[in-house]
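Anyone? Bumping this.
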Amino acid sequence: MRKMTICGGGNGAQTLVPVAAHNLGCHVDIYAPFADEADRLRAGVAVHGGLEVTGALQAKARPRRVSADPAEVIPGSDVVVLVLPAFAHESTLRQVIPFLDEGAWVGAMPARGGFDYAAARILREQDRDDVTLFGLQTLPWACRIGEYGQVVHVLGVKNTVDAAARPASQIGQVAGLLERMLGLSIGPAANGLALTLANTGQLIHPGIMYAHFAAWDGTPCAAGDVPPFYHGLSEERAWVLAGLSDEIQSIRARLEPALDLSAVRPLKAWLLRSYGDAIVDPSTLWSAFVTNRAYAGLKAPVRQVSPGQFVPDFGARYLAEDVPLGLAVSRAIAGMAGAVTPTMDRVIGWAGARLGKDYLGQDAGEARSPQRYGLESVEQLIAFAAEE
Ligand code: NAD
């Protein structure tokens, strides 16, 4: 490993830089084309002597180079990792791929839904069948920037994260590198479809938003009354998460005979596997959320409408990312597979109305669904996932 490049300038990207540099002992560059982030990162790193992670993880490292120009940082990279909200994947890939070395690996952390459909199409357009793709099922950390370009706080670390590769046969090598890079266990998912269905952010984020706010009457609240996002989940509304998880399992059951989808775990099993001892009471799905110490302190997304008055922020990534690049992708797959999805339909319908989109109707094509990339049947979906 000569060097890797991390794309992005947010919480996850600023965590991965010191973690990867420390664990791999290689040069790490940052590609940060968004707004003035490259300048701000350089300034922060200069003041603090590097990027530092504190809290549940500790590491500090100085990126070798930070640039908003892909020509300055992408060439010479063995691995390029996108640590970005999924809506920025396609534009970033289009900027990065022309500068990749022969045989480089490019991945997304996390992949969310349908990353492989979008990325494979761009590779095909640019005639780059030498490039290996990979994706992680989630970000390994809950992390928040403390001081931009200087310090990131890691609130929690998952025990295990699943990853998939394309071609799928590369997963052994990819998982080995990711384990060394991240310092945690990587579970191999057999293909990209498994990763898309196993994306638990698509269930947890829109599901809890629905549980908190579907019955909201429009009245702003004081700062002290903003509900804790995870720990504030009410027991009687936990059915939303159970319903979404069951529907993913029914999609899995319909596709499984043809493909290995064993990485698509029920939500409670995923929580226990990911967080282990951080969960004080693992007896029910609801208790596993509200007693998970890794979720402590995280509030529901709100925006201030007048001094000291807050309303839910329906534009936050919990809906804006996790529906079109998550739940609506799985819903599109369910439609092909003939799975019935009443809970998904309810949550997507409600979230879409908040976002001004009809993802079950006229705006379905805006989701990163297989149909958007020319995969129209279960047979095509399975053939794509199994392609070498
Ligand atoms: P973030 O909100 O901190 O990332 C924002 C960054 O993304 C920006 O700083 C910019 O670099 C880039 N970006 C945003 N819009 C862009 C655009 N239009 N074009 C190009 N770049 C753009 O996000 P994060 O917290 O680092 O999360 C990254 C991913 O990890 C997301 O998918 C998120 O849902 C997921 N995730 C985050 C956490 C966490 O604790 N931070 C936990 C689990 C999953």
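Late reply, but here is one note on the structure posted above: The chain is about 40% helix and 20% strand.
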